[in-house]
Amino acid sequence: MKRRDVLKKVGVGAVGLGAAGMALKPRKARAKKVYNWKMVTTWPPHFPVLGEAADKTAEWIKEMSDGRLNITVYGGGELVPPLQVFDAVSSGTVEMGHGAAYYWAGKHPATQFFAAVPFGLNAQGMNAWLMAGGGQELWDELYARFNLKAWPAGNTGVQMGGWFNKEIKTIDDLKGLKMRIPGLGGKVLKKAGGNAILVAGGEIFTNLDRGVIDATEWVGPYHDSKMGFYKAAKYYYSPGWHEPGTTLECMVNKKKYEALPKDLQAIIDTACAKSNMWSLCQFEAKNEKYLVELVEKHHVKLRTFPDPVLAQLKKYSKELLDELSAKDPFTKKVCDSYRAFQKTYEAWNAISEESYAKLKHL
Amino acid sequence: MKRRDVLKKVGVGAVGLGAAGMALKPRKARAKKVYNWKMVTTWPPHFPVLGEAADKTAEWIKEMSDGRLNITVYGGGELVPPLQVFDAVSSGTVEMGHGAAYYWAGKHPATQFFAAVPFGLNAQGMNAWLMAGGGQELWDELYARFNLKAWPAGNTGVQMGGWFNKEIKTIDDLKGLKMRIPGLGGKVLKKAGGNAILVAGGEIFTNLDRGVIDATEWVGPYHDSKMGFYKAAKYYYSPGWHEPGTTLECMVNKKKYEALPKDLQAIIDTACAKSNMWSLCQFEAKNEKYLVELVEKHHVKLRTFPDPVLAQLKKYSKELLDELSAKDPFTKKVCDSYRAFQKTYEAWNAISEESYAKLKHL
């Protein structure tokens, strides 16, 4: 901060600048605009990892812009309700938003591919599709229709499959099951005869505890512990077939973004990339500790869905994507890109990550 | 760029600023230093992904700093030889460097933990250890001894196990084998009776072709294709037990870094995070295409090391880490942190990524 004071005193274009330290070319000073922006989020205020990712993105942008782009972050409901983030940013009521694209399925079904697809890409795959496989370009094309621009800005990694009050032994055990499960995963459960119930985060525990719902998914051990689900359900299932690497998004009103100076545009883009990595790292570093606590301290029974159940759910997921593609050409375009990428990614993954992962058991 | 011209004309602190667009507070102008820095790298100039990552990091830093931090990137040997990058940045001959920390094992054995450890963490694990598991703090502590500060700035993902002219059926097939394999992997091979040979990138093909070496590892299908190894060896092995997720590094002379304004410090840090993700995405998106080409067009025989061979190599790797730890307290401190993290990470990975990866076979 001292340098700044020195510079202020030395003043604009002063020839004495070089004397302040290293021999550097002074640059012609110019007034810089300060942007005071708002970011609304779908998360409770400062919610672990998810809300923190929004806070940190704003903090990094402020640091990198030397205070020229100040973003005030609002938790869901503080300024607009969580599920109105998309509209608020699209219309320009606020400049930025943070959430997950599958919340906007009602705006366009293709949004869901930019968050999570049942039996789809994991975190590394989502990043690769978005950053090097054409995914970001499709996302840009879709969101431009809504005057939005978004980036991946976080990832949960492979989620858990959820909390149940009975064991899931056959696909029939899902029949009639009232489960809190959003997005495409919920539609797959419906195909299996279950009831996908929408319950806001803050109400899940009470509903599960009172038997209003029979089961729920949320994120993974770290978050699920904080929600206290172990007090209301005893079976905790893996893997999260419905959300294998959910991408969080940071979005900006496109017109306002394009009106920013190029340096601030690049700063937002890069802060999102860091946030994307930061979030996944938090989950990967913390989940095991909480999982052990759930099992050892709270006597949660850890289970894996049986293969025949997963195979059937996978079949339903494929059907669902086929149906979505048949309804709308742009959704088909996104789905085709996603599926083609997943095919080659998984083939390489089988040789690389999967082949390597086995060595831990040697 | 038009905005800048407008601002220049309007001048410092002009009350008319608001008229240029949105109603924003004008900020007192001040001259900003321009830093012209050099980045030396261990890679051939503009080398795919690895050299490109250095180029892109510099490009992003320039964009985000609006040209206040201009970094000229030099390929290995253009300004200093590849393996003098560490010394050149440490001494301040140049400001920045790009490489991989295991090249500096001669400076301190603990450096190797910040690049790749045989049977160690994959890319997602390395990121999580560094960003959320205490790894970065240890890296900072180590590099501060050399007046350096470094960040993860790229990752290869799980590498391939290498090119061989004979099949590896038992651990005895490694005895007497002359293989180009650097770092800790080379030391493990030595324990198995092989000879780890150091050969610079540009000479590997010729040495393999002429039988000076019997085998070589490099990176993965994308890079290995470009090197033409398929013309000199027919067996291509997975997985890369010796480099399961090699972290690339971007380093800065610590004194020069600390003398930068805070915004430029944050810009370097964040550009590295993006570069880290960008590189891994390139490998993950491209490897499969080249692997298919190697097998189908160049008739390369794809093989997996037998489990008993891998189990023995894993045993040797454990011994090697124990020996390294016994020699030096700081190496022990890093190794203990790494191993403790790997243990919990792998336990969670077994429930999450590994459990999910199996579903592709349903």
Structural features, described:
- Two copies of one chain form a homodimer.
- Chain A is an alpha/beta fold and 362 residues long.
- Chain A has two domains: 160 residues, 3-Layer(aba) Sandwich (D-Maltodextrin-Binding Protein, domain 2); 135 residues, D-Maltodextrin-Binding Protein, domain 2 (3-Layer(aba) Sandwich), CATH 3.40.190.10.
- In chain A, the strands form two sheets. In chain A, strands 7-6-8-5-9-11 form a six-stranded mixed sheet. A five-stranded mixed sheet of chain A has the order 2-1-3-10-4.
- In chain A, strand 6, helix 6 and strand 7 form a beta-alpha-beta unit.
- Chain A is globular and about 70 Å long.
| Number of domain units of chain A | 2
The ordered H/E elements of chain A are HEHEHEHHEEEHEHEHEEHHEHHH
N-to-C CA distance of chain A: 54 Å
> What is CATH's topology name of the largest domain in chain A?
D-Maltodextrin-Binding Protein, domain 2
Shape assignment of chain A:
globular
Provide the CATH architecture of the largest domain in chain A: 3-Layer(aba) Sandwich
Q: Which range does the strand content of chain A fall in?
A: 5-15%
Radius of gyration of chain A: 23 Å
CATH homology superfamily of the largest domain in chain A: Bacterial extracellular solute-binding protein, family 7
Nearest-integer average pLDDT of chain A:
92
> Which oligomeric form is depicted?
homodimer
Structural class of chain A: alpha/beta
Q: Major sheet of chain A: order of its strands?
A: 7-6-8-5-9-11
Strand tally of chain A, please? Answer: 11
CATH level-1 class of the largest domain in chain A = Alpha Beta
Count of helix runs of chain A: 13
- Biggest sheet descriptor of chain A: 6 strands, mixed
Instruction: Identify low-pLDDT runs of chain A.
Output: 1-23
Largest chain interface and its two residue counts? Answer: A-B, 104 and 104 residues
Query: Helical amount among residues of chain A, as a percent range?
Result: 40-55%
